[in-house]
Design brief:
With 142 residues, the chain is α/β, with parallel strands linked by helices. It has a domain at 22-119: Rossmann fold, CATH 3.40.50. The chain is 44% helix and 12% strand. It has seven helices and four strands. The chain has helices at 5-11, 23-26, 41-55, 64-68, 72-80, 94-101, 126-139; strands at residues 31-35, 60-61, 83-88, 108-111. The chain has a four-stranded parallel sheet, with helices on both faces. The longest helix is centred in the middle third of the chain and has 15 residues, at 41-55. It binds iron/sulfur cluster. Residues 36, 38, 40, 42-43, 88-90, 92-94 line the site of iron/sulfur cluster.
Length: 142
Amino acid sequence: MTNTVDEDAESAKGASPKILPLCYKVAEHENIIWVCDGAANVGQIGHQVGVLLTNMDKARMCCTTAVAAGSKPHLDIAGRAKKNIVIDGCGNRCASKVLERAGVKIGHAIDISKFLQKVPTLDIYQADVKRIAEIVIKDAGL
Ligand code: SF4
């Protein structure tokens, strides 16, 4: 049975850390998530959506900054990924541009500001994280 976003958000608060598979070992079999992690509500919501989808085992978040830095192992992961899913906070599309400039094929991308107003705050609501996660699950076919 597949858990709901609500159930997984609760179980993600468990006492022991969830140890993830190493990106470079599983890239071909995983939907790899790249978030912009921007310093606004939409960037931080995108980060938390990446965390939630990873903890739900629907995808595996990887290091967008490493791709921007030209890290060869991370470029290799992006090149081998089953599907690259990009979560941008706003229309600047920073995470998408990082991958595009690296020549990486993007399977699905979302601009969160199309669904939520961008506000200069780092205080975010879990209800927004769940709402955006559900949109990504549906639209990216996770
Ligand atoms: S896409 Fe928008 S929110 Fe994300 S890092 Fe760029 S400017 Fe910031």
